[in-house]
Amino acid sequence: MGRKKVYGLTLILMVVCSIASGLSFGSSAKGVIATLCFFRFRFSFGIGGDYPLSATIMSEYANKKTRGAFIAAVFAMQGFGILGGGIVGLIVSATFDHAYKAPAYSMDAAASTVPQADYVWRIILMVGAISAALTYYWRMKMPETAQFTALVAKNAKQVVADMSKVLNIDLEAEEDKVIKISTDQTNSFGLFSREFMKRHGLHLLGTTTTWFLLDIAFYSQNLFQKDIFSAIGWIPKAANMNAIHEVYKIARAQTLIALCSTVLGYWFTVALIDIMGRFAIQLMGFFFMTVFMFALAIPYHHWTLEPNRIGFVIMYSLTFFFANFGPNATTFVVPAEIVPARLRSTCHGISAAAGKAGAIVGAFGFLYAAQSTDPAKTDTGYPPGIGVRYSLIMLGVINFFGMLFTLLVPESKGKSLEELTGENRDENDEKQIQMDPSRTVPI
Predict the structure, then answer these.
(1) How many domains is the chain built from?
(2) pLDDT value, residue 226
(3) Which end of the chain has less Cβ packing within 10 Å, N or C?
(4) Residue 151 lies in a domain
């Protein structure tokens, strides 16, 4: 269907399903949750399409010298989104907490959640649709990428017309070259072919496993943040707050983490990815995530003591910093660079899907695992787990395996997409590339 067309469809899905999620209806709590799940499931198709398309489109528009920084910058905007989401949560919860006074849960369990609290989560979900909708016009004004039009759609005339418009120059003289490239059949193998497995099988294994392992660690950290902050006393016990005030406290803690480590880590990657390279940043990120997880877990009791709690938060923030100045950014960048154009967004989607499978493991597995070993201290409805300390040790081991599987991922710094994939190059192209390393292939 093309990058541009699906890019528009994914955006419409996200906007519609964000609004519908906020309007989830039902005559009972279970009914509301069922409706919410229905729309969040469909919302996931938008997110699932947007990830590979954003990376692929940017990789096909950028030149080889700055491609890593451009793709990483697209992903780094997620950091501002996380920060923005936290700020929206703070504003909405603070407004409702001020307007509707409620006692703490320990004082009056039923009255601690005021009826108006139902609007809090709905507003937070629907606000996301506004920022998404604002991008629709610019997405639709963007021409289809030349790589897709030439190599997949096989439409040389459209490539020349699109690129002439983008570059503001006349490229009619280049049409014969584009026709030659678009009719090239030397790389016509499919995703399930022996040729693909021979050329890119290990690369795809590397990108899927590293993204899978990263997201186990990354999303489990996000989801039991409140348990960690409660364990070290940074957030009051839930029984000492009303429902809306608890939202405010958790949003504040997560916003501080985003501000101090998440956003900073993303933009360190943008600044250094085309200098250090993808491989070095990913390996370094996994290494420091492993180190900090073990540094938090082994002397865990030490960190729970009141004088040491700020140190715990700083080290915990550093694990997020090196996730984002590390594999959380590079796993998004690399799959968009190392496979041929007609399989690029597909393989990126497969890698991202593996990551979300890891997020499921992290979300459900560690939500249970992080529960206290003492049955009296577990959250309502949960069996005893292994506790936060051993959960952090497990995450450290997972990050270590991420380092090992990074060895399967090739370095793509300073190489054109054609060099990386072996597409559309003849001997003359190869000689010119060797003579002039700054040259970029037109498509």
Answers:
(1) 1
(2) 65
(3) N
(4) no
Q: Of 326, 344, 308, 205, which is closest to residue 268 (Cα–Cα)?
A: 326
d(CA 84, CA 306): 30
> Percent of the chain scored above 70 by pLDDT?
83
Ramachandran sector of residue 424 (left: φ over 0; alpha: ψ -120 to 50; beta: rest): left
Q: Classify residue 235 as left (phi > 0), alpha (psi -120 to 50) or beta.
A: beta
How many CA within 13 A on the CB side of residue 40?
10
Q: For residue 97, give its domain range.
A: 3-142+187-412
Say how far apart CA 175 and CA 179 lie, in whole Å.
6
Between the CA of residue 390 and those of 2, 8, 30, 296, 394, what are the distances in Å? 46, 44, 33, 10, 6
3-state helix, strand, coil in the chain (%, to 5): 75, 0, 25
* 171 belongs to a structural domain: no
pTM of the model: 0.78
For position 222, which CATH number holds?
Answer: 1.20.1250.20
Q: Over 70: is that where the pLDDT of 360 sits?
A: yes
The single residue listed with the structure tokens 């300073």 is 414
Q: Determine the Cα–Cα distance for residues 396 and 290; give it in Å rounded to an integer.
A: 4
Q: Is residue 99's pLDDT more than 70?
A: yes
For residue 149, tell me if it sits in a domain.
Answer: no
Q: How far apart are CA 323 and CA 268, in angstroms?
A: 11
Band of residue 157 on the pLDDT scale cut at 50, 70, 90: low
C-alpha 207: how far from chain center? 14
* Contact (CB, 8 A) for 347 and 200: yes
pLDDT tens digits for 71-85? 999 999 988 998 999
More confident residue, 159 or 18: 18
Quick: pLDDT tens for 16-36: 999 999 999 888 889 999 999
